[in-house]
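re: ur question from earlier - yeah i can do the single chain one, its not a big deal. heres the input i used so u can compare w yours
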Amino acid sequence: MRPNRSRVPRSTSARATLLAFSTLAMSAAALAPAGEASAATTTTTTATTVPVAGSNCAASSSGEQVLDRNGWVASSNAPSSSSGVAPYALDGNIKTRFTSDEPQKAGLYFQVDLGSPQTFNELSMAAPNSATDYARAYNVEVSNDGKSWSTVASCTGKATPELVSFHTTDSRFVRVVLTGSSKTYWWSIDEFNLLAKNETTTTTTVPPQATATSLASSANPAPLGQSVTYTATITPKPVGGTVSFFANGTAVTSCAAVPVNTSNGQASCTTPTTSSGSVAVQAFYSGAGRFKPSTSPLLAEKVNPPAAGYWLTTANGQVFALGAAVNYGNMQTSAATGPVVGMAATPDAHGYWLVTRSGKVSAFGDAKFYGDLPGLGKHVTDIVAIAPTADAKGYYLVGADGGFFTFGDAKFHGSLPGIHVRVKDVVGMVASPSGSGYLLVGADGGVFTFGTTRFYGSLPGIGKHVHDIRAILPASAGTGYILVGADGGAFNFGSGVRFRGSVPGEGVRVSDIVGIALTTDDNGYYMAGADGRVFPFGDAQSWPTPANLTGSLPVAAIAGT
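and the output i got, formated as tokens:
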């Protein structure tokens, strides 16, 4: 070790500096600054090193090409001071250095990110101004992802400079890891270089390697709401890279850039199923080093919907299950909570949430409670709807003024008060399947979108003037919606939900429709009235109104399995 030295700019090239180091062959004792122990009084513990085939820990300096260090980034786990940080070993100035600031010990490393894979087969560490600070014992390791490392040389240090050769590698990362220790001397590197030495043996240029990506599912078919694991396998096994998964051409948010395990060539991602039917899943491998990108064939993932049924909930929190729906519990309401105003089912139809006008939330079955407004000390009286996130790990509450409240993994993307729009007639909302946005609808059929949710149209936009819209029904894939009026009139926008009929179209006159729910196969819907009547359309079927429902009226919401 030696006293700190000031950093003085210098224009010496890497090649010239490297050659200069080779002429500084003097003893450690002669070069050690005053006040430092000589090598003769130093105790050094050196780990046993096993030579790596094809490596040479005492290589000669001739015929090599020094790599351009522009853009390289150096780092270390050593407790270096500001005058001895890792980047100083790459600055072309032998008056500055990287130093460990402590005696050498196994596990300390010096690492360089080259920015992209580069070809080299020699490494040089020189410390001419700290001749006793050479690495006592170390491994040279390379990697393409900074996570999986291969040892190309294992050496016992003798003096500075240290020049190591090994089999030619194409790597982005290189690091030197100490395997030995010294009770006295620090570890210093004035200049660090990588070199491409001319091989004396005949070498063959390896062309870019084509890859093939295959894709498998842990469950196919899978029930709606179940988590499915997709596994992409890259052949031949690459040195790195990532895999991104897509469903119906849209990136799966939680499955982007999954690192490839280089030991088995696989990348896996687990995600819940959020819509029934057939989903086209595909995996894209990014490529790495000489391994070229590739795309898997489409995998048709079949998602089976739950059995048909629906729930009706009344304003006083009583739940009535019809068809295959199961009653998982009722909610207790009071003057403080206000009446129930909304209901939402979990994707697998094994649970549901209820919300009151004050924003109090109750969870039943496999629905999880993530918080509510009274629990946050919020006092409101205008909550109108609840909408879960696609993975059922959170939910949104929306008020009549278009204000949003998020819980669990629900993300906030804006609100009407936030954009200075003053309304009091919001009646419902829809969250996008990807979680990247949502939309809400007013009693006049006006639609407002936030985040990346797509706008498909509104009633004012097509010249319709109404004031009795009561609910919105989203397409399960997020590609459209239906607006429903108090009279059971239905207006569809986008291609995701087809118009299957309306109450006026059946010649029935009502004025108390409170909600609408989609069938499990998306080919029909139910409309519910405050008096408990349910109107089926498309392939929807209704069941007889429970006899005990009458005493709990009015119905506040409907949710389908």
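The chain has three domains: 14-197, 212-304, 309-560. not sure if urs matches, ping me
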